[in-house]
Design brief:
The complex is a heterodimer of chains A (163) and B (273). Chain A has 163 residues and is α+β, with helices and mostly antiparallel strands. Chain A has two domains: 1-52 and 114-163, Alpha-Beta Plaits, CATH 3.30.70; 53-111, Alpha-Beta Plaits, CATH 3.30.70.20. Chain A is built from six helices and eight strands; from the N terminus they run βαββαββαββαβαα. In chain A, the strands form four sheets. A two-stranded antiparallel ribbon of chain A has the order 1-8. A two-stranded antiparallel sheet of chain A has the order 2-3. A two-stranded antiparallel ribbon of chain A has the order 4-5. In chain A, strand 4 (70-72) and strand 5 (79-81) form a beta hairpin. In chain A, 44% of the residues are buried. Chain B is α+β, with helices and mostly antiparallel strands. Chain B has three domains: 9-120, Ubiquitin-like (UB roll); 142-229, no CATH class; 237-273. Chain B contains eight helices and twelve strands. Chain B has helices spanning 27-33, 91-107, 112-120, 142-149, 179-183, 221-233, 247-258, 260-272, and strands at 9-14, 17-22, 57-61, 71-74, 85-87, 156-158, 165-167, 191-195, 198-201, 204-207, 209-210, 217-219. A five-stranded mixed beta sheet of chain B has the order 2-1-5-3-4, with helices on both faces. A three-stranded antiparallel beta sheet of chain B has the order 8-9-10, with no helix packed on it. In chain B, a hairpin with a 2-residue loop joins strand 9 and strand 10. Chain B is globular. The chains are: A alpha+beta (163), B alpha+beta (273). Chain A binds chain B through residues 9, 39, 41, 43-44, 46-47, 49, 51, 58, 60, 63-64, 66-69, 82-90, 92-102, and chain B through 1, 44-47, 146, 149-151, 177, 179, 182-183, 218-219, 224, 227-228, 230-231, 234-238, 240-241, 244-256, 258-262. The structure holds iron/sulfur cluster (3 copies) and FE2/S2 (inorganic) cluster.
Chain lengths: 163, 273
């Protein structure tokens, strides 16, 4: 587990690119977007935030699951929902950060699994608020990166569909 | 559900394909892991196997057996063995599945799900006398085992033989989580998830708790109390865990706590007191 998903909320510009990317990457049925496992939002006039599962050392979600449906993937370090899930929703109640969720379109309990080691959100985040790397970026590194990237969601959406 | 925790593997052949599987794993799970479609009614990966429906039958042959000799086993309950040969879709297997479905079609003539499965195995109409009932329960006991897993054990199988049925003898035990109804393969458990703020299942009516800010339904009070007890019993360290808020509100609250300006605001509010 050399790489991690580094989250730096104050770099978030609430462009919702991460949500789009996550939806597309996790869509089980083509054309029916999944609920994103990441959320960006405005906390107040001056602050944005981006939040996804913290992959806790002692996950509350895992502790309450009655069937062992939440397991850590040793390769990515992320907690994943497996096919043992019986849909009781205990995990959603237990996660202190609201990072376990229910996707009512696809009738699935969902959480961030860092896309099994290739997180879509970080790939498209234009500001370095989300970074998949072996070390966090300095503000300077993030600024350099942001200069080269378009932060226009439409341009990024085109980029996503091109692959 | 109960995989062996050892790293020991056994080597076997399923439908002519060789595979290494962890010792103790069931044939059904191993076959499905290889992408082979074995039908089942009573198996669920999260619940203890029970072997009630017999739809998952496969043919096996152990090393040393005569070439012509095979045996039928329920694959959800049969652990893999070294040198085993397995056939998941032979004529014998299909014939057995069609008998299973023929009988089920007589038991639950109103079930579209069973009728469709029967069709796939060549049974258009049951050759037995149809029960005169709207009930579609096939006695797979998934509901019984699921309710047990979540720690309520509210559902029991009552009576014996062909008259067996499932019910909730002690209504107090049911917390109205709807897990049983949502897992039932033949939708045999009637319920109303939310009818003007009330939920109904197993002839019991529940209130519903909603998130104050988003209006999202969080569950019945009994359900929330059960999760809270479970969380406390597991020694969860985060008190926020027990807050009865929707995931969305929890995310927002967490962000607010970490965001500097909000902190200052809170401090100012504290000082003003
Ligand atoms: S879902 Fe919540 S409790 Fe579980 S690992 Fe992620 S942040 Fe922790
Ligand atoms: S909803 Fe699924 S993953 Fe969540 S606690 Fe229940 S069984 Fe486990
Ligand atoms: S709704 Fe009641 S009977 Fe069904 S699983 Fe939940 S507690 Fe058990
Ligand atoms: S799935 Fe094996 S007997 Fe029902």
């Amino acid at each position: 587990m050399s790489k991690r998903l580094y989250v730096t909320p104050y770099r978030c510009i609430d462009c919702k690119v991460c949500e789009q990317a996550c939806s597309l990457a996790n869509t089980p049925v083509p054309g029916v977007p999944a609920r994103p496992r990441v959320q960006s939002f405005k906390v107040d006039d001056q602050n944005n935030f981006v939040l996804l599962c913290l992959q806790c050392d002692e996950p509350s979600c895992q502790a309450v699951c009655p069937v062992g449906a939440l397991e850590r993937n040793p390769e990515t370090g992320a907690i994943e929902v497996n096919d043992k899930c019986i849909g009781c929703g205990f995990c959603v109640r237990a996660c202190p950060f609201g990072c376990m969720d229910y996707d009512d379109t696809h009738n699935e309990y969902i959480k961030c699994d860092v896309c099994k080691g290739d997180p879509a959100c970080a790939k498209y985040c234009p500001t370095g608020a989300l970074v998949w790397s072996d070390k966090p970026w300095t503000d300077q590194e993030a600024e350099e990166y942001a200069k080269k990237k378009s932060s226009d969601p439409f341009t990024i959406a085109l980029e996503m569909t091109k692959k | 559900m109960s995989e062996a925790k050892t790293n020991e593997t056994v080597h076997l052949t399923i439908d002519g394909r060789e595979v290494d599987a962890p010792k103790g794993a069931m044939i059904l799970d191993v076959a499905r892991g290889m992408g082979i479609d074995v039908p089942s009614l009573c198996a669920h990966p999260g619940l203890e196997p029970f072997g009630a429906c017999r739809l998952c039958v496969v043919e096996i042959q152990k090393p040393g057996w005569d070439d012509w000799y095979k045996q039928l086993v329920t694959s959800c309950l049969y652990p893999v063995e070294e040198g085993l040969k397995v056939w998941t879709d032979s004529d014998e297997v299909r014939q057995n599945r069609s008998v299973v479905l023929d009988l089920q079609m007589a038991r639950v003539p109103e079930s579209d799900y069973i009728r469709e499965l029967g069709r796939q195995y060549g049974v258009e109409k049951t050759s037995y006398a149809e029960r005169d009932t709207k009930d579609t329960c096939i006695m797979c006991t998934i509901c019984v085992r699921a309710c047990e897993a979540i720690g309520r054990s509210a559902i029991a199988t009552l009576s014996r033989g062909p008259d067996k049925y499932v019910d909730v003898p002690n209504k107090d035990a049911c917390i109205g989580c709807l897990v049983c109804a949502s897992l039932c393969p033949t939708d045999a458990i009637p319920f109303t998830a939310n009818d003007n703020g009330k939920r109904r299942i197993w002839d019991k009516e529940f209130d519903l708790v909603t998130d104050e800010r988003t209006g999202e339904v969080l569950g019945t009070p009994e359900y929330l109390a059960h999760v809270q007890k479970r969380a406390e019993g597991n020694g969860l360290v985060w008190p926020e865990t027990l807050k009865q808020e929707s995931a969305k509100v929890k995310r927002y609250e967490y962000a607010r706590k970490l965001s500097r300006v909000a902190d200052v605001e809170d401090r100012l509010a504290d000082e003003a007191k």
